[in-house]
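Can't paste images in this forum, so I'm doing it all in text. The chain is below; anyone willing to post the predicted C-alpha cells underneath?
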Amino acid sequence: MLPCMTWTQSLVISVREGCVKNFHRASLILGLIGAGTAVGIWFYQHFANPSEQAAVTHREVATRVLAEYLAAHYPGKAALVMSNPFRQKKGQPKQIYVFEEAGIRGLRKGFSKPAIFRVVFPELRAECYQNPQSIYVDPKTTTPLSYLVAENSFNVLAQQNPDCEIIISLIGLPVGLKQTELWRKSGAPRFALLLPDWRTLGDSEMVRAAFQSGKLIAAVLNKPGAPPEDARFDADVRTEFEKRFLLVTVENIDQLRRAYPKLF
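Text version of the structure:
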C-alpha cells in the first residue's frame, strides 16, 4: 500500500524539521499523524484522489473487525484506546482528524452496543518540544509515534484507567515498552494493535511469546498482495477486510508466521 509508506516517511521528515511550534508537520501511516510543509501540501492536493479516500474507509474496516473480535472473545471488557496525540492540537492538516476519526468510528461500530471504550492520548517525549532534532525515528518504521511518545506514557494512562482490561493502540507501541511494568505484569491489561511495528517487541519468537502469554491478544496487519486502494470496495465489511488485512490471534499466529514470515 504505497500511500501508507509515503505517510510513514513523511513523519520522519517532520521529526527532523520540527513541529508543535518547533516541529514541522508531516503525516503518519494511514493518517496516524501528520502535519504540514511540502508533504502536507501534497496531501491537500491529493486528498480528493479516490485512493486516499479509500484508505480512510479501509482504516475504519480494519478497526471495526478488530473490535468485533474483541467484543466476541472478551465480552463486556472495557478498552482503553491509545490515539494520536497530535489529534488534540489545533491547526493540523485535515488528514490527522479524518484518519483518526475513521479508526474510532470503526471501533464504535465493531463494539456496537454500546461502545465500551475510552479514547486517550499518550504524552509526547519532552524532546519533542525542546530539541526535536535529537529524536531518532527509524525510517523503516510503520509506527513513528513509537519513537515520539514517552516510554512510560502507556503505563501512566493504564494506571489512570484501571477498569480498562484491554489496551487498543492505533499508534503502535512505545519503544522500550517491554521493559515497563505494564508489559511485564501478567494478565490485564492485554493489548490489541493496529498495524504494529513488531520490532518494538523484538524478533518473531518474542512476538509469538507475547501472543502465547496472553499479553497480546489481537493485531491487524496489512495483507501482502492486497488490491490497490482504489479497487472496487466490497459491500461486505468482512470480505473487504479479508482482501486487505490479516487478523493475528493466538489461534493463528503459528500458521501466519509460516505463511508470511516477513510480516513477523
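Residues 2-263 form a domain with the Rossmann fold fold (CATH 3.40.50.2300). The longest strand covers residues 216-222.
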